[in-house]
């Protein structure tokens, strides 16, 4: 039986999921989306040929609802959805922080809820999506969720207690790499390179390093050692990074992201 999937609040992440499901072979008729603004609804219809309906309609028509609204909009969205969500629907939340318990509490008793933290490389099928079962979700619900997220990258199942840390690492993770690239391109400008050249050099270094990290199975320390020649250039740079506390800054940055995820949860309790 074809499962109909509705993306509730199709913004950046919701759209990435819709396009991923279409690339993976779902028909536009198998998908629904909801949006808050008419111009957004129009753009989604034109781009993907899918029906964009209101939240109540989506809850009635779809077997699986993917909640892709911001954490701060979650309570309001659940209030609109709850009267229309039958307890045999699967509800998947992609929101940072929000717990499955907070969602379950607002839906009919027994409704299966799954929490997922994905990331924007979903747009190029390189997402990392970490999936956790709520208290009524079965292995079959986890499998259905994995089927939705697998076409846009990798998936893992984690205990929900790890989701705030996952959000800090892989949910926000791409932003840290973009930030580092921005800073290194600035360094290239300082060293006298044209911006376009600096950008090309750093992006390819990032791609090469990422592929080696993923595919070689080597520890990052070993890979860095292989670049770091005695009395060479790399160690001169590493000394500066250590002097400026970059390692400690990254650890504290990710702790702050984890703490913010917890605060977002508290807003929906
Ligand atoms: N961006 C990222 O890298 C990641 C985001 N996430 C999570 O994904 C979720 C979405 O984030 P993102 O895509 O960046 O945010 P967006 O703001 O791009 O998308 C959310 C969309 O939901 C719409 N919306 C809000 N309330 C309602 C409602 N009641 N009914 C219908 N539509 C509604 C918004 O409308 P409007 O346009 O009018 O505001 C917006 O288009 C968040 O919970 C975030 O934590 C998870 C992993 C990574
Ligand atoms: O910044 C945020 O809150 C969202 C969640 C993870 C990535 N972006």
UniProtKB/TrEMBL annotation:
Main subcellular localisation: cytoplasm
Stretches assigned to the Pyrroline-5-carboxylate reductase dimerisation domain: 160-264
Keywords noted in UniProt: Amino-acid biosynthesis, Cytoplasm, NADP, Oxidoreductase, Proline biosynthesis
Assigned EC number: 1.5.1.2
GO molecular function term, any single one: pyrroline-5-carboxylate reductase activity
BP terms from Gene Ontology: L-proline biosynthetic process
UniProt entry tagged with the keyword Amino-acid biosynthesis: yes
Residues noted as binding NADP(+) in the record, renumbered to the chain: 68-71
Localisation per UniProt entry: Cytoplasm
PANTHER family, A to Z: PYRROLINE-5-CARBOXYLATE REDUCTASE, PYRROLINE-5-CARBOXYLATE REDUCTASE 3
Family: Belongs to the pyrroline-5-carboxylate reductase family.
Function noted in UniProt: Catalyzes the reduction of 1-pyrroline-5-carboxylate (PCA) to L-proline.
Name of the featured protein: Pyrroline-5-carboxylate reductase
């Amino acid at each position: 039986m074809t499962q109909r999937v509705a993306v509730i609040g199709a913004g950046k992440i919701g759209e990435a999921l819709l396009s991923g499901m279409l690339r993976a072979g779902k028909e536009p008729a198998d998908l629904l989306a909801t949006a808050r603004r008419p111009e957004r609804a129009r753009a989604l219809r034109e781009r993907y040929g899918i029906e964009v309906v209101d939240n109540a309609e989506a809850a009635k028509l779809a077997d699986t609802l993917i909640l892709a609204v911001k954490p701060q909009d979650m309570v309001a969205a659940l209030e609109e959805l709850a009267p229309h969500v039958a307890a045999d629907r699967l509800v998947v939340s992609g929101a940072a922080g929000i717990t499955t318990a907070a969602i379950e509490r607002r839906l009919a008793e027994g409704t299966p809820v799954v929490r997922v933290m994905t990331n924007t490389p979903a747009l190029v099928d390189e997402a990392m999506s970490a999936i956790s079962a709520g208290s009524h979700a079965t292995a079959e619900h986890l499998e259905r969720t994995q089927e939705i997220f697998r076409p846009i990258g990798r998936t893992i199942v984690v205990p929900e207690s790890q989701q705030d840390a996952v959000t800090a690492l892989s949910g926000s993770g791409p932003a840290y790499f973009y930030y580092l690239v921005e800073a290194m391109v600035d360094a290239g400008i300082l060293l006298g390179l044209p911006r376009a050249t600096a950008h090309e050099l750093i992006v390819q270094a990032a791609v090469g390093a990422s592929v080696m990290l993923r595919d070689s199975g080597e520890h990052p320390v070993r890979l860095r050692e292989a670049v770091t020649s005695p009395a060479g250039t790399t160690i001169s740079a590493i000394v500066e990074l250590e002097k400026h506390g970059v390692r400690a800054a990254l650890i504290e940055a990710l702790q702050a992201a984890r703490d913010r995820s917890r605060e977002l949860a508290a807003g929906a309790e």
